[in-house]
Amino acid sequence: MAILIPNEQARKIFIERQQLSQPPGRVLSKPGLLQLIDDLGFVQVDSIATVERAHHMILFSRSQTYRREHLTTLLEKDRDLFEHWTHDASIIPARFFRYWKHRFRRREPVIAERWKKWHGEDFDAAFEETFRHIAENGAIMSRNMKADDHKSGGWWNWHPNKTALEYFWHTGKLSIAGRTNFQKIYDLTERVIPAAYFEPEVTEEEFLDWACRSALKRLGFATSGEIAAFWEIITPEEAKTWVKDHRDELVDVVIGTADGSKPRQSFAFHGFPAALGNIPDPPARIRVLSPFDPLLRNRDRAERLFKFFYRIEVFVPEAKRQYGYYVFPLMEGDRMIGRIDMKADRKAGSLDIRRLWLEKGIRASSGRLERLEAELLRLAKFAGVERLSYQQGWREE
Asked: Which residues pair with 32 in a beta bridge?
């Protein structure tokens, strides 16, 4: 018989799994940061920095004692983290690298076929030259090999050596050794990833089991489709087969929805939810989340659990945007209460608050606005600016 999990409890479970239940003021050491990323599974990387880059904001929202230099050390010196692809570019614990080798093998023919369409049949013309140059001369950035007459553009207009670098990175032959002004530095994978993380080799069966098991652990409860979507390294059919083959370890759960619609049939490990321990209430204070926060990464799941419709409108023409170019979700306790449009003006030393939208039923009480301002001041300090600047018309009427 399926276990019914009311929506309020389901939200608390998922928030706890996403490491948002602990006090955000707790001290986060460098080992603690590594454990936090391991618990999350990955942290998405993105170049947009209207306030701060996505990975920094994701980690800051979980502990406001987070230090950027700890992340850089773990990535570029200790090599306990590496950059690669989940659903998008992400920072991943290096102990998972041996599983990613299966992803490389699976993706190489897919990428080769896709990039032929993007860059033409001879897209691989510069590959041998590029790889040999790195092997003989060491790490490089793409601009080091760019032809003088090449005009830069998006991925559709990469110069041939940039195409080669990205191809070898996606297929595991190169890795990201570091970044300079957010530009990738590429080197041979064996010179970046410590040898200890290559071993032991895992079979295809072990890889599939790890991908599903580790995803379900981090989600708390999930459908087979959500299990597959977590890492995006296996297919939905493989996740469905894994669930079928491991029914003796799993229980059926029915997850209540925030809008009262039909509950969602899902799966969890035996002992759920008692096996998760005493799940605390999330901190009551307001927190600003990154648009790429893993809590909201699966938009459909977020809508079911929080009744919060959220889309990034970066690629939506300005005239058609409902909110704005890069709008930050707001979380209070176990609820999503709204979104805010803001930008750090580092020359002026201010965090410019452009517009606030609260969800239906959320009052703009003086207490709530005071808590929001306190959080915005904390975020401003993290972003390296001194004050808040409320723009005309910032409050939704």
From this structure: none
